[in-house]
């Protein structure tokens, strides 16, 4: 939808047209000039007052501009009344000039709020100052020769300085608003008026003189600038920060080279004495030389930008290629390819600003780890490389891991990111040197091997790794096809169900849904063999949706079979929890399947941080109100437990298997503490990974009521789980039998735990 144009914008256009017509009439009819000065003096002040009242700009610039116009108008009215300049009219005009200097100072302060000036910016200022100095000196020379008065020369000099500021601003800024353009036009008209009056030896034009047309038009245009809605941005810091591209700014400076020649030409043609003849060519040569330096600075800046990453200022791919080509061929070199673990989660959870700050901190740490012999570059995203002599490669790689282990604090957030590092040498199998592309490929293969081994480690390249990486790429493509549902030849997903049991009675009270991939060639794949690929391909949310729908359809079938259905827990990834419409989609899936909300439990993982201002709290709150239970999975393995308990409507804590495995030893006090806290918060506790009767008995002694693990049952296909744990609802002694009984056809003895 196109936003309506404010009324003041239309009014500005109408008045601009009226101003143009009026000025044309004043130029053609001398008798109108004195009256036009009176009208313009009053109307310009009113326009600034109305614009300021309606648009309410920040800062003092517009009130100062209105005061300047009022002082100038008062001086002009006195001249019209008395027919000549006197001390009062001159004083009022000089007071207005002082206020104008205040406006220019305000502009300077706004411009100073920009980022630090570059070398090119400083050279631009030097060029502008040199040209202004030449023009000012020429004017002074004219006065010394007897052509003009001191006051007129002073005013003209100030105007020339202002003209330089305007030229510099206009040539180096882009996207100026309508109000800013009107201000520039008004200022140029003011300068033209001042210079015209100075040439006649006066500060103001006398009644009836043609120069009054310039005076009328300049104050009216300045007033119109205040009336336009964009006046609120005219003096804003962001206006001065919106610069042109370096090439545009450089071309904009070239006309200044012509100023010395123009000054010399005017002096020769007019016959007005001025500076000695040699000064103008010398100044012109200086200006030309400075412009050449400016061009060289722009070229260096362009070369730097072409070979450096704009976010981190590290070398980019092109800069890395240059460094690789220029390395000493007699010194073996190695390449470290560094991929940040869990950077995507940080970026998605806390936003790109936090992610960018994290990347800059990683840059500093990598630079420190690579010093003094290594070159650090960023290829893009969260991938960095270090080019280093082979003799230093392993120590540098270890320092990289050590430097990245420490937490990073960004905006009071404590972030933890590790790294997977691939290491490759530049020597090719035939004894020659690898090109950079081949070296990057070897390092990439090694890096994926490091990630596949769990991350947080260095993996040297070996030819045998190629098959492993090829296998990974193949599976990645197949998992995309699998979740798109368009390629039955890549197999299908199966949901297995592991019972959650009452530790005292051994009866099942629910189940956790665990996904498996039935692959046509590789058999049944556990989550550990493909979930990382799902994450790498940004398919976490898609997998969650597929599993949730499959589970709800299965629960609906069990209900149709007349079984005593128990609640089923489904894991949700942070990607799903960050989606605004998750609650609506889950409730729609429940309604579609005809499954009551209390039969669905959702598990969120303690390892992943979720932004407090994000949708997760609202989503889980809505689902909780609808009857869906929320479990906190892997409790004790992360670092945000208490925060999660405060923010989310958690009903049950699932104690991580790493804690449960120590319950018969020194981990018992920790388990007892968790149970005491949960009891105080009216939460249940379930122990994951219970594998021995000793662990079960100790958990019972510590007050833990529920458990899950191979002691009771392995994860089972849907049919086996239903046969063993979901009897008909009207059967004698209705309810699930104790886990591990012969009816379930599963062993209660410990076995290798299933992943996920």
UniProtKB/TrEMBL annotation:
Keywords: Membrane, Transmembrane, Transmembrane helix. CDD domains: EAL (cd01948), GGDEF (cd01949). Residues 472-729 form the EAL domain. Residues 727-756 are annotated as: Disordered. Residues 331-463 form the GGDEF domain. The chain crosses the membrane at residues 12-29, 35-54, 61-79, 91-111, 123-144, 150-170, 182-199, 211-227, 248-266. It comes from the Bacteria. This is Diguanylate cyclase (GGDEF)-like protein. NCBIfam families: GGDEF (TIGR00254). The lineage of its organism: Bacteria, Bacillati, Actinomycetota, Actinomycetes, Kineosporiales.
